[in-house]
Each structure stands twice: as structure tokens, then as C-alpha cells.
## 1
Amino acid sequence: MLDGVPMYNVEHLFGFFSVFTPEAVKKVSLFKSSFPARFGGRLSSVLDVRTNDGDMEKYHGSFSVGLLAAKVNLEGPIVKGKTSFNISARRTYADLLITPFVKSDDNLGYYFYDVNAKINHKFSDKSRLFISTYNGRDVYHYDSNSSDKNTYDSDYNSQHQTVTVETITKDKVNFNWGSTIIAGRWNYIFNNKLFSNTTLAFNDYHFKLGMLSFQKEKRNSNYSEYNYQAKYNSGIKDWTYNIDFDYDPVPTHHVKFGVGYLYHNFCPEVTTSKIHEQENEQLNDTTYQSASNNNVHAHEMSLYGEDNFNLTDRFRINAGVHVSCFNVQNQSYFSIQPRISSRYQLTDDFALKASYTKMNQYIHLLSNSNISLPTDLWVPTTKKIKPMKANQYSIGGYYTGIKNWDFSVEGYYKGMDNVLEYKDGASFSGSSSGWENKVEMGKGRSFGLEFLAQKVEGRTTGWIGYTLAKSDRQFKKGGINDGIRFPYKYDRRHNINIVLNHKLSKKT
């Protein structure tokens, strides 16, 4: 989530770059096991990213050039002490680097860019307004042009003649994908116990693919031409309204509650192809359209409440409930999702944590491969497709008895219903039927153990993490993989991460 708005595309260059530039980020919060009631609509972890507000007192910035990309960041006051701005921009120049290695008749290129901008205005000590935008794109294109002219002698029906054949061929492929987000957020402090946060946002994610194949041939007085064009579009447009409250009735209780409304405009897939054939004076034009070219409109409403409170000096609990309704195609789906997490401090250095979370997800991600590609499609719950459901349990131990070190071990299990996958042999293209006829619903599960040792203070910091995990899917017998469980794309049986940071001096 970026400033409270869901991000449908979080990667550039097929996962090698994140869409979040460090200079634009103020704070990142990761919820990987116990999910507070204020987060809904997803079955998995929450990465809550907040962007930099900008400096209200002085101007400063940075500029950097890397092997693949360059970026710039500027921030400072618009009205000193009242209004500030922050803007970050980045672009890769991979398209320029590969140019010397491409044949002269071909034009091949790929690049991505993203821009983050934010304005922060302080009306008073109690009222503040934030307006933030994000725009990012990945763009790939390939053009190939060739021409050929041959002359040869032919003896046809004992008639000698000279034949001249001229051929022109053109092939083009281009696709781009990305997101545009515009969000306004108003903070207001009623008193020292009650605080509100109101958000209005627009989110537009799209994937567009275009292909062209052209061939023209002239053989003496005969002429023929073949032209094939195809376009494939998919995307989501969201309008979001949320109002959230923080309430501290007494020092031992911290209450959060709020409501939200989300209007979805889904374009699951729009496929159009045209074929133009001509031979001398004979013409033949054909247009094809997929069976699911209509957009799907949906309304998602949510209500939540949670309380973070102390039962005793050693025992802390966060309990809440998330209630949601999803209306699509005159069909409504309701869900009540309880959430509870607890922390018990056994000693000053050792704590135990446990949690249970029930979650619903009304948007499905259809994946075509084991790596993140733009052809992974976001599709909605419909009359035929049910929402995904999950129950997740976790328990862990945390130790801080060694100075500057944190140690933890955590186990988790998540069972999922109504997960969606393409049927065997089906994909996002290649069929005249709609996407609902290409998919199958089944069950999934994810479980594992995580170990982490982290040094948090000193000139040398870092961590060593190891995860033993499993993630799989199972569908009905006779369906995908004939009903036998199989590893899912996020299955990582053994995962080791080692990070080391060393501060050489105050400057480096």
C-alpha cells in the first residue's frame, strides 16, 4: 500500500527493481503474520509504505547515476513553516545501452520510469492536508523491417519470362504496464484522545499489448498484402474513500475504527484482432473480439474496529473485527473477519506471541508463470467466481537478552479456499472464450518456520534469516494436475538471507 492506497504493480524489470524509490519513502511497516482489523481485502502480508512529507524549513536534494538507472530527489518549503513539497523521479536507460547490440534493421528497447510527488500543508496544529501522486510505467517495444528484391528467369508452360519479386516485411510488438495514483489525505486532531484520517484516492493500473505483422509482395503485375493487428488490454480503475479514527479513552487502551468504500471498474481482458488480406483486386477484412470485452463494475464496503490493550503488565492483546461487503453483477458477498493477536512477556528478555486472522479477498491474481510478468491479470469476484477466504495461525518466541541483538523463531499455517488458477493448457490469450471459462477454483495452504538473528546497534549491523516453508495448491480430481497437490509459484522450501552493514566513519 502506498499512502493507504493499494498498489497493483510493485515491480519493474520483471521483479529486479521495486517501484518504491528510497528517497521518496518516509516509513515502511510490514505485517507478516498478525493482521490488524484495519487491513482488509487481501489474504497475504501487508507492506504499508508512507512517502516523504518534504522539509518545511530548507531546500535540499540528491542526484545519482547507476549502471542501469538515474534518479533525482528534491524537497523543501513552498511556504516556509506551512507548506512543503517532495518530488522523486527515476528512469532506466537500458534502452540506450542495448542499442549498439541490435541489428540495424531492428529497433528493440525497454525502459521504466516512476515519479513520486507530495505536497504537505499545515492549516493549524490540529489540521493538516497531504496530496500525493505516483506514476510509473514499464515500456517494451520491438520493431523489425526488411525488404527484398529478386529477379529470376522462369519457364512456365514453355514460355520464357523474367520474374521480379519485391517483398516488404514488418513486425512490431509493444507492451506497457504501470500505475497512476492520486491521493488526498486530511488529518484532524479533535482533542488529545481522538484523531481522524480521511483519504480520497484514484488508482489506475493497466497492461496493454499490441502486435503487428505486415507482409507485402509484388510479383510482376500481381500484388498481395497481408496485415495482422492484435490488441490486448487489461486493468483496474479504483475510487477509494476511507475515514479512520484513533481513540485513546484511557492510557491502557488504544482503539482504532473506521469505514471505507471502494468503487472498482475492472477491465479483465479486452482482445481485438484484425486481419486484412488483399490479392490484386480481391479484399478480405476480418475483425475478431473476445467474448469478455465488457467491463465489470463492483462496490466494496468495509467497517472495522480494533482495540490494543493491556490485560496485565505482561499480557497485551490486539482484538478486532473487519466486516466487508462486495457487490458485483447484482450479487452481494458478505464477510465477518475476526482478528486477534497477543503478546506475553515471560521475562524481561523473552516474549511469546500468537495470533489468529480470518481474511477475505475479492480480487484474484491470475499468473501465467513462476516469475512476475505483466501478463499476471487482476480479475474480480463475479457470479461464477467466489471470493477467496483464508484462516491463518501463527505463534512465535522473541529473545533480546544479548545486548544489541534480537532473536526470533515463528511458525505459521494458512489455509485458503477458492484460490484461482488457469486450467491446464489455458493462458491469458489464445482463446475466444472469456477468462471465467479458463480458470478453476481450488484450495491452497502455506506453512513454515522462520528463524531470525539480528544485530540492531553498533558500527556493524545486519541479520541472518532462514525460512523453512511450503506453499501449494490442490484442485478437484480430473482438473488441474488431476487433483494432486503441487508447489505454488511462491513456494520457497529453503530461504536464507544474510545482510551486513558496516559504518566506516561518520560520513561513510
## 2
Amino acid sequence: MWKNLGSVLEGEIVRLEPLARRHEEGLFEAARDERVWRWMHYDAGGSRERFHAWLEDALAASSAGTEAAFATVDAATGELVGSTRYLALRPEHRGLEIGWTWLAPAHWQTGANVEAKLLMLEHAFESLGCLRVEFKTDSRNERSRAALAALPAKFEGIFRKHMLVRGGERRDSAYYSIIDDEWPEVRENLGRRIDAIRKEEAR
């Protein structure tokens, strides 16, 4: 198993902290907008009970070592703005998935997601020694698919009727990946995008 999977990942726009119960109230407030959960497995944002269950599931998976969940924190203000995690861990094959990613809508298009992906990919490839990092999303989620293509991650196809979500809805999943050979190009691209965002904010 990877020993340092759940490290604090520091950026200039966001900081990723290993998810803890102290994050619950702030994350619940960040997750209240129904748009956050439109493409998730289930809707945890409108109910404290459902959100608490989501948090406890994430903490249990992190504790068991099968996933590593993070709270996404605004680096400038300390505000809790979302969450993301490593999952589908395959240390024996040096691969994992990045998923369960969500942000409060006020932080969409701010560079928060771009930098969070940079921090997680950097940790995966450069600290954990991954050969492959994968992503999946609902095939109908055009916003997520565009964001993955912009990394750029390679589209690998559609897994048809891959999951049952939200009480039985059938979901086709679009799969994407980045491999170690592609990481330098991806890192450079993400760096350019973050620099452009900072320059725009400085105007």
C-alpha cells in the first residue's frame, strides 16, 4: 500500500487536506447547491443526514486504505469549497483513479479545479510513482468531459450501463486516462492555464 497517499497538497489557489470530521459543517454549506450533485452517484447536498452519510462513507474508505478523500480549501480565505479523492487504488499496478470531485458553483471557473487536478496528478506521478491515472464521468456530463479533455486526458471509451445511480438510474460512464509518458505535457499545460488565470485576476 501507498503510505503517503493522504498528504496535505499545497497550492496557491487551493489546499487539499485529508478529509476529517472537522470539515463537515463547512463542506455541507459548500454542497447545498443542487448543481453540485447533478452527476454524482446520489444527492447528498439537500439533507444533513445524507451529507453526513456521504462524509462517513468517505472517512471509512480512507481509514480502510481503499480510498483517500480530501477537503478542498480556498488557499486565500480558508473557506471549504469542495472535495475530491483518490479511489480504485491499484498500487500493485501503480494506478489509481481521481474522482468524487465537486466544487461549490461559486468556485467554478476560478482555477480551483485546475490546480486541484495539478496537485493530485503531481502527487500521483511524482510521489507515488503511478504509471496510470484514470477518470470516469457520466457520459452525458458535458462539462466534466470538457474539463477532462482540457487536461488533456485521453478518452478511452464508454462503459455502457456501467453503474446504477440515484436509486436505479442506468449510467453509461465515459473513461479517460493520463499515463506517465503524457504527464510532462499535461503538467506543462496545467501550469500554463493556472498562470493565465493568475494574470487575468491581476488585471
## 3
Amino acid sequence: MAKKKEIKLTTSEVVFIEESHQYFLGDKELQGITSTLIPKAYPATYMGIDQETLENAAARGSFMHKVVEGYLNDGTYYEGLPELDNFIKVMADNKLTCLATEYIVSDNERFASAIDLVMANKKGEICLVDLKRTSELHFEEVALQLSIYKRWFERMNPELDVAHIYVLRLRDNECDFVELNPVSDGFFNGLIE
């Protein structure tokens, strides 16, 4: 039986400062895509939602991300947390293994962002997964976000192709694992010009 090829990922030179949510390449500050490009493409997504509600939702989403990262990176398990149990089930059902959490990608000019999860499926194909805890899925926004990640991931790792992009929504007992279609390069290029 042939030995499975180990997948090695290139590490970005971009540094992320978590407390202030800033990205730096050397002395140059880069912009995050979820705070710039996604709102530029879809400005009405969160229109009409008050700031306190958005901040509370962001805090709950950040906690869920930390729980998943803790489980993947050091085996920390929070008993009785349905989001984590559903995450573990999705990983098992889809035979996914984690290659990296919060994997930083960038165009090394203006923008940078962290991919929630870089996974491999049982065929060894690369899968990018974005975790969400939103009350509803905004498919177009997440498809754009993951398409940008895909482009920059492949640029950083030219020997690797991203085969699949997924959004995984975990909210209380609700769980949606959906494969998305990448957006066109033309749409993406028009956004960053």
C-alpha cells in the first residue's frame, strides 16, 4: 500500500495581532477582508442591525471558534456544548482531518485574512472551511470570502489546489455543512481595483 503524501503548508510572513485584529507584513498594515471587501461587495447584509446585537453575536462566534480551535489544537473538549459535538460529527461523517487552524493568507500588498480551517478529506484533497454562528447563512458573502482565501492559498502553496470550499454553521443545536461554488475571478478582481 502506498504511503499517503504528507501535506506541508507554506507559512505566511504576515503577522496577526489578535487583540487589535490587525495584520502586518513587516511595518506595513494590511486590511482584513471581512471588514473591507465583503462589506464593499454586499453592503446591505447587516444593515438595520444595531451595533450591540452585532457585537454580542461576534463575541459568541469568537467563543465558538476558540472552542473548535482548542479541540483541534490540543484536544480540549467542552462537555455539553452542542456546537462542538456537531463539529466533531461533521469531521467524522466527512472524514476530514485538520491541517491548520487560523491559517493566514494574503496578497502581500493590501489585504490579509485567516482561514478558519484548512482540512484534507479522505482523498487527500484540500478543503477550506469557514465557521459561522450566524442565525442565517449568507451564501454569497461566504462564497466570496472563501474564494478569496482559495486564490491566496493556492498562490502561497502553488503545488496544492483547493478542491472544495465549505461553510460550517454551528449555532446551538443547528448545524449546516454546505459546499459552495467559488466566485468568478472577474468579480473578485473588480472588487480589489
